[in-house]
Design a protein that fits this description.
This protein is globular. By secondary structure, it is an alpha/beta fold. The protein is 25% helix and 30% strand. The protein has a single domain, classed as Vaccinia Virus protein VP39 (Rossmann fold).
Length: 181
């Protein structure tokens, strides 16, 4: 299954997606809405794409001007697709692929901080406690986006506040910022 990058320097290019039901690529419509909301904040940003799947969210961020991308994925098929996509787009110098679960990575990552964090965990296993730990890696003026099943409430956690919440049928996006101290 191919996934099309929407805009920026790779706009219109297709990347390798997964035919597996173990990952669910964010639809082009929702990805486009996400980046329309983020807007120019992505330019020169350090981006974390947790539960990366095909890497389409992070690679879209690079296409739109992000400076550096970290992708975290544990599924072997998805990892092979991401590696191919990184090579095909020629973005190895600005991309780091972490081949483990988000939970494992969080237990070993130190002093990491990101301008934008996007988490699109599997809907059958949303791992909300792990996802909410990602907020600790958010820069003070950063933005965190979580994709979750549209029929649920936006996840909440101490230290971050929901600044926007959009529903797209079966999927929803919640946008967070750090709480003012």
């Amino acid at each position: 299954m191919n996934v099309r990058l929407i805009a920026g320097k790779f706009g219109g290019r297709s990347i390798e997606g997964s035919d597996s039901d173990r990952t669910h690529p964010m639809s082009e419509r929702i990805r486009n809405a996400l980046f329309n909301i983020i807007g120019q904040k992505v330019v020169d940003a350090r981006v974390l794409d947790a539960f990366a799947g095909s890497g389409s969210i992070g690679l879209e961020a690079l296409s739109r001007g992000a400076r550096q991308l970290t992708l975290i994925e544990r599924d072997r098929i998805a990892i092979k697709n991401i590696e191919k996509n990184i090579v095909d787009l020629g973005v190895a110098n600005s991309t780091t692929l972490i081949k483990t679960s988000v939970e494992n990575w969080l237990s070993t990552s130190e002093n990491e901080s990101y301008d934008i964090i996007v988490a699109d965990p599997p809907y059958y296993d949303p791992q909300l406690s792990t996802v909410m730990k990602l907020a600790g890696l958010l820069k003070s003026d950063g933005l965190m986006v979580i994709s979750y099943p549209g029929r649920r409430e936006a996840p909440t956690a101490n230290g971050i506040v929901v600044v926007d919440n959009r529903s797209y049928g079966t999927a929803a996006l919640a946008f967070y910022r750090k709480e003012d101290a």
